[in-house]
Design brief:
elongated, mainly beta, 8 strands, single chain, four-stranded antiparallel beta sheet
Length: 139
């Protein structure tokens, strides 16, 4: 009989141990840490009717924020500016602003890790070659 009691006790202990691992019962569930934000700067130049795309990789889900930091020589110039997904060849715009100025911020959300992109383009408004700087903060 002692063997039966030991087995019965062992089964009860295993059942309790398994229940203790259930997140609905465990008051201290394990959570995954949020990805540390990464800041990337992109620079380049635009000519009339030109555009430029920069690819970057999100390491996980979270907020993605792109800022048009500068345009020179005309800091009041208007350009197109957007965030999208990168498929290896093209930037598919998800969020775009056709009349962006310096300090325009576009904020989106990445659902998972993966390739993303930021794009800046001329809307046939630039009179001369214009240099730009973009900052992107992403997971």
């Amino acid at each position: 009989m002692r063997t039966v009691t030991s087995r019965g006790t062992a089964l009860v202990l295993l059942a309790l141990a398994g229940a203790a691992c259930d997140a609905t019962i465990n008051p201290f569930p394990i959570t995954q840490p949020s990805p540390v934000p990464i800041t990337v700067q992109f620079t380049g130049s635009l000519t009339r009717n030109g555009g430029a795309t920069h690819q970057f990789d999100s390491t996980g889900p979270g907020t993605v924020q792109a800022t048009l930091v500068s345009l020179a020589p005309d800091g009041d110039a208007i350009v197109g500016f957007g965030l999208g997904t990168w498929n290896g060849q093209l930037c598919s715009m998800v969020l775009a602003k056709d009349d962006a100025r310096v300090n325009t911020v576009i904020t989106g959300s990445a659902g998972s890790a993966g390739p993303l992109c930021v794009r800046v383009w001329d809307n046939n408004l630039l009179g001369e070659e214009t240099t730009y700087e973009i900052t992107v903060v992403h997971p």
